[in-house]
Amino acid sequence: MQQRLSLNKPTQDKESETGPVTFLSGEQYRVCSGVKPLTRRRKKRFVIKRTVVSLASIELHPIRICTKNKLVHITNHMSVTEMFSHIQGFLGADQDVREDIRKVVQLLEQAAREILTVLQSVHQPSGFKEIPSKCARARELFCTVKTHIADLKTKFPAEQYYRFQEHWRFVLQRLAFLVTFVVYLESETLVTREAAAQILGIEVVREKGFHLDVEDYLAGVLIMASELSRLAVNSVTAGDYTRPLRISNFINELDSGFRLLNLKNDPLRKRYDGLKYDVKKIEEVVYDLSIRGLAKEAESAGDK
Amino acid sequence: MNTRGGDGCPRKKADAAQDRDAGDKPPTPVIAAFKVFQQELDTKHDKYERLVKISRDVTIESKRTIFLLHRVTSVPNAEEILNEAEVKLDGVRQKIGQIAEELRGEDIYQFHRAFTPGIQEYVEAVSFLHYIRHRSLISLEEINASLVFMRTEEDAAETLLPGTHVLTFQVTPSDYLLGVADLTGELMRMCISSVGNGDIDTPFQLSQFLRQIHDGFSYIGNTGPYEVSKKLHTLRQSLAKVEDACYALRVRGSEIPKHMLADVFSSRTTLIDPEEGVV
User: Fold this and answer.
1) Which residue, of A85, A160, B160, B205, is most buried by count of CB atoms within 10 Å of its CB?
2) pLDDT tens, B183-227?
3) So what's the ipTM on this one?
4) Can you tell me which residues bind Mg(2+) (chain A) (predicted)?
5) DSSP-assigned states of every residue in A144-213
6) Do B109 and A162 touch (CB under 8 A)?
7) pTM over 0.80
8) Domain of residue A247, CATH code
9) A80 and B136 in contact by Cβ < 8 A?
């Protein structure tokens, strides 16, 4: 792949008429009518110009200039077999990259499972007192996640994020969930996308590199919502009657937030459709508490 | 389309409700954040829809070009048809230029699914034209070479003024492969129809060419994307049809009136077991 990066290599003088043609295998090229035989200086200028065009696979296929008016014949040297082995080269390289990514993603999944195990203990009756310490422990584990993600970034060209996205999409959503959950347990607020990305050691906007896609972040938030509905139930069992009310407020706010989005018929939409059941569940818990006067009792207890 | 239209209505209501809320009290941080997400998602979805639309146009025009090219075998002045096809493909390229415009500064793989069918169809058309002209397989580089667009406010192509920008569209290797796989189907049709016109050489050329492509795909095997292996099956059927046609021509061509040959192939090809294959 790399040896095709021969844009600056001076081509034969005659061919240089065709603009920065590096791959002289075609039969016909449409050549830019305006382009005079390119001097080397020009070519450099052109190359600089082209780097402005951000393109995922620019180094894989060098570009040539062309417009409609003039046709230049270049004889064909490439047989069908050569063409296919050429393509196979791309595919083979692609597979290697995927293989590397998969290995790192496995480590990430392992780390995510560990964090989840730590956080699961908050559902235990004894766990409610330990929430701060559990969160601190989870925060520590996020450091290993950070290093794994840093490793993952080196496995593929930064501008090809979406090409390989399906490999880490699942685990990134899990991680987004874990981050939002930890921050909720700590401060009972919704973590911003920026803060979540920061905890994972990644960017928010695509242009800066490996980033937290907005859909992945939202998916993480939705996973947290169902986790919170579970937490509401368990906190009642553990005798904490105020928490469900706070969770209820929070989830309602989330729900009205999601209502603002115009979701397409995609995985995120499907997940969002589940949010109403979480809302319902929490409302039931709040109802149960209030008809028994437990909510009020808790409130007055809180006032004291 | 319907779903988008359906989405539009509740959205207005939600917006209105939101505006009312906003009048009462300032939006909470959560709501403010979700407003940002709303914008971001809408921009993305709109772009996706636009790309799907262009891609559909590309598909339709490419299909028409292919139909036009099939007429080549039965018309005396083939050159005229080829030129007409060239003009049509220029139109398609302009459309692909629009795709490139949409994708400026974006990750092309983020929206790849929106336009991949159109691009595959374009590859099919352009490689079909190339085969008819030159009897060879167009390379990925050649396809990409014709997808460079100069966008200028004035005619500044020569000087590459700051106002100019070069737009390229890169066909991915897998789109190229899938397009070439589709091409074999067209070649098979061309083979059969050329026999109908009494052309005895073309089927043999075609069968050789198809065999080369088939070998190429076998070489790639399962390293390619999933769709390639699916298309390999169809490819094998097309190849078998063409090979059978050549067989029939060789064995019985001298005995049977030419206009009946086509019937001979069609009755033969039905006997082919689809599971039968080399690999």
Assistant:
1) B160
2) 999 999 999 888 877 777 888 999 999 999 999 998 888 787 888
3) 0.74
4) 227
5) HHHHHHHHHHTTS-GGGGGGSHHHHHHHHHHHHHHHHHHHHHHHSSPPPHHHHHHHHT-BSSGGGSSB--
6) yes
7) no
8) 1.20.58.200
9) yes
